[in-house]
């Protein structure tokens, strides 16, 4: 089946793009993937999305966006995209169930997946004391003890940010040396709210009926197990952009994030746009994702309009040529 626009992914970016395209009478098809709504569906409270003074749960916010997109005429389809053919237009989208779709334009909003440790207690406590976003959830840990796991620049940055709320932020890293740049390490070490538990490997997230209570670690120097008390645990070990299905057809940066023309959502292939966390290695917020989704929709709408005009001109030229040939025959 052919569509003017297909949006791959249904986080804040994809659904915002769907709302804008649907309002422009383009009737986009949205393929929602294996995690409909994206990472926000694992967030219990969202307090920093404008328009909700009392906050809103992540699943509720995404459900509202979904309903809004459907209201204006978007179609949302369950499924997982396994491959895309960009070699010619219309583009071909291959689905896991064997289905094939074609589109004049594509918007990629597949997000990025936070890297996990894979230890006991981690998955079941996401949103219940375990978080992958300090700027999203730090507010909920005022005067609490927090652990940040990681040794890179992101971990140092998040540890410092969390000291605005927490009574103590303890950095846990499996090695003695940190991967973070010297200036980021210096800033973190100068903060008297930051404590250090280096050369320790996380073993288990410990939780009770009210949520996370600590982190069990292996002391690599002594060989002993230790329990570090904490009310919250923040994973700061990086993200993986969800771009595997693209097969390297679009350029990425050194971390795998899709590259777009600065100030736009346009990728290196005309008619293919990217928005949200799949192309954002810095901000990774619901509101910035939504904003980039709006950009992608406006860019796609302009492309579709210009492409349609070119096709009409070509058809008119062919018709005139045909008419001229018929006149000559007579």
Automatic annotation (TrEMBL):
A Pfam family recorded for this sequence: Pyr_redox_2
Cofactor: FAD
Cofactor note: Binds 1 FAD per subunit.
PROSITE patterns: PYRIDINE_REDOX_2 (PS00573)
EC number: 1.8.1.9
Name of the molecule in the record: Thioredoxin reductase
UniProt organism field: Paenibacillus allorhizoplanae
Quaternary organization: Homodimer.
Keywords annotated in UniProt: Disulfide bond, FAD, Flavoprotein, NADP, Oxidoreductase, Redox-active center
Entry's family note: Belongs to the class-II pyridine nucleotide-disulfide oxidoreductase family.
Catalytic activity: [thioredoxin]-dithiol + NADP(+) = [thioredoxin]-disulfide + NADPH + H(+)
Name of the coding gene: trxB_2
Domain FAD/NAD(P)-binding: 4-293
Region (Disordered): 307-330
Alphabetized GO MF terms: thioredoxin-disulfide reductase (NADPH) activity
């Amino acid at each position: 089946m052919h569509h003017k626009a297909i949006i791959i992914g249904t986080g804040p970016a994809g659904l915002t793009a769907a709302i804008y395209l649907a309002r422009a009478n383009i009737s986009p098809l949205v393929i929602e993937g294996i995690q409909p709504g994206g990472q926000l569906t694992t967030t219990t409270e969202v307090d920093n999305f404008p328009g909700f003074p009392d906050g809103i749960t992540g699943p509720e916010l995404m459900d509202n966006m979904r309903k809004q997109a459907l209201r204006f005429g978007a179609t949302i389809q369950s499924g997982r995209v396994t491959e895309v053919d960009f070699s010619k237009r219309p583009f071909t989208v291959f689905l896991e169930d064997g289905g094939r779709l074609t589109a004049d334009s594509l918007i990629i909003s597949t997000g990025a997946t936070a890297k996990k440790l894979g230890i006991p207690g981690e998955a079941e406590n996401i949103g219940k004391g375990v978080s992958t976003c300090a700027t999203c959830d730090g507010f909920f840990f005022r005067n609490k003890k927090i652990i940040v796991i990681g040794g890179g620049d992101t971990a140092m940055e998040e540890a410092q940010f969390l000291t605005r709320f927490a009574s103590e932020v303890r950095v846990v890293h499996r090695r003695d040396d940190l991967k973070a740049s010297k200036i980021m390490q210096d800033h973190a070490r100068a903060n008297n709210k930051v404590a250090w538990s280096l050369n320790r490997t996380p073993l288990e997230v410990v939780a009770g009926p009210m949520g996370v209570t600590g982190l069990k670690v292996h002391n690599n120097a002594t060989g002993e197990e230790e329990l570090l008390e904490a009310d919250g645990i923040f994973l700061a070990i990086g993200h993986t952009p969800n771009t595997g299905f693209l097969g390297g057809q679009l350029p990425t940066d050194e971390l795998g994030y899709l590259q777009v023309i600065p100030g736009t959502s346009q990728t290196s292939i005309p008619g293919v746009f990217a928005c949200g966390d799949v192309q954002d290695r810095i901000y990774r917020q619901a509101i910035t994702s939504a904003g980039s989704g709006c950009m992608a929709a406006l860019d796609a709408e302009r492309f579709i309009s210009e492409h349609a005009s070119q096709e009409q001109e070509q058809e008119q030229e062919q018709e005139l040529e045909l008419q001229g040939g018929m006149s000559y025959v007579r």
